[in-house]
Fold this sequence. Notes:
The protein is 67% helix and 5% strand. It is mainly α and 118 residues long. It has one domain (3-117). It has a two-stranded antiparallel sheet with strand order 1-2. Strand 1 and strand 2 form a beta hairpin. Keywords: Membrane, Transmembrane, Transmembrane helix. This is YggT family protein. The chain crosses the membrane at residues 18-36, 43-66, 78-99.
Amino acid sequence: MDSYNSPSTKPLYRGTQIVWYILGLLEVLLAFRLALKLFGANAGAGFSSFIYGITYPFAAPFLSVFQVSQVAYNVFEWTTLLAMLVYWMIAIGIVKLFLMGKTVSTSEAAVKLNNQEG
């Protein structure tokens, strides 16, 4: 059976699309957080408050990893960059895990195993 016509191909493709979409959405929200902090946005303003509130659960595990760089009201949150990197790496890992479930022929598996040895 051709691995491109396998019944598992379409669900795996959709699964990877979902992972990349969620990552993209999270990265955009975290980028807004980074920019708002950097430009000293009013935390009490509706948009800023919304972005800080929605991104806090994703940024919180990293908030004490690095010190923030601050000049007046402008804050460079290194931890937000770290969070963006970690979530990107997690997404790659999930996609790779999905791809491990892809059907392969015996000949494809043999070629890939040979490539791993060399």
